[in-house]
Request: fold
Amino acid sequence: MRIAVERLPATQRLRPEPLVLLHGWGSDTRSWEPLLPALNYHYDLLLVSLPGFHGKNGGSEVCESMDSWLAELQRQLPERYLLVGWSLGGMLALQLAAREPKRVLGLITLASNLCFVARDDWPQAMPEDTFAGFYDSFGAAAAATLKRFAGLMAKGAGEQERELLKTLRQLSASSAEGREMTAWQQGLQWLQQLDNRAAFAQLTQPGLHLLAADDALVPAQVEEDMAQLNLLQRVDVVSDSCHALHWQRTDEVAARVTEFVEQIHYTVDKASVAQSFGRAAHSYDSVAGLQRDIGHNLLRQIDTSAQVADRWLDLGCGTGYFEPHLCRQLDLPGQNLIALDLSHGMLQFAREERGGDYLWLCGDAESLPLADNSVDGIFSTLAIQWCSDLPALFAELQRVLKPGGRAYLATLGPGTLRELRAAWSQVDQFTHVNRFASEQQVRAGVESSGLQLLQWQGEEMVLRYSEVRQLTHELKALGAHNMNHGRASGLTGRQRLQAFKLAYENFRQADGLLPATYDVFYLQLLKH
Reply:
């Protein structure tokens, strides 16, 4: 069995990973035509034909089972990719994402339910008797049933409904022309059988799931039920839209898809963060001059007169350098200071290097292993920039702080290493430099948590080097080199490195040195 996959190279490729598009039942890959101009400009596209839906370039017939079809598709797809699926295609894409958590970077579904046919415990779906009637009708009179199905896809499109109905009927008729309907009946069977609730609940990749407000096939009311199953998945309803929402609201859907894809590429891979800093533990302190300066600046901001020093948290403690400084300034016993870090390697080094009776703890800032109202204060220097979900981060800080407790934070802004980013942009379009949240994004995250922002301070700090390799060596020794999705895999070629170094030379200053700018934010937060 060979699945038809049409390949559309990007006009100006922005990312190495392609978008894999799976269409819905009732029309072939041409159903993606409204979105192609927007998506294909920066992204390679792979248009997958479902069994029996040949599209323009041939495709698959009846297959042994859905599992065998998905297994073959897995075999044909590249090492890493993103999935976009409409209706049945979205349900199949979800199955694929659940099976391939390391290869699938993200999942986008359009007008896809977790169960297309209602269950006793999932009523927000097509009633079973309605689906059975449709299935029988298709078997008896396929052409007439497809016309009816096109009407259901267009229903809810408002003033556009009549024109959209005409287009969708032509598309369905053209897709079915000269085809054996047995494979299409198999697609209907998959719609009936698929129950994606368990797979959806276990998804670890980022997901965007767009429902149509006036969908006649997938009720938008399912939004709340889906959202409760997996908090990592974003479920939104597109207003004033029908089942074929990407035909009716093309610009909005294209913008949402593009925005989501770019967010994924700038999302930090936390496993890489932990491993990278763990490997750098023994070399970190030798090159961490700037990091220490920023930490001491933050330390001086702590108002000891306003702070109860019973139990504090050092969030992202790294090598443990600031543990004795914090205890001395707060007059805090070591056993009352929780030193938390994402990296086991860093914690092991810190425990051996610092000694003391600090409470060493491995954990994620976005899901702190601490009780509610358990700490009087939080100190965190150059750690939260590795968090991709700022609302979750600040909600956790709010949760673990006691009323009246304060958090003192130092983090990096988007202007950090802008010279390095600009130089690489002259070479290729991969993500070579870590991307950090803007002031607006950080402030919005704080506001969503209910914490009060008592103080905000921005500062630019510039380091200078005689050669660019000194900077890149320092970043590697810190463990702070590129850890974003969308980075180039494997070794960087000599020609590209030479081009990068030449581009960085454009920033050499009158004193003969190369600058590296750090965009630093200092925050002081209060829990009422």
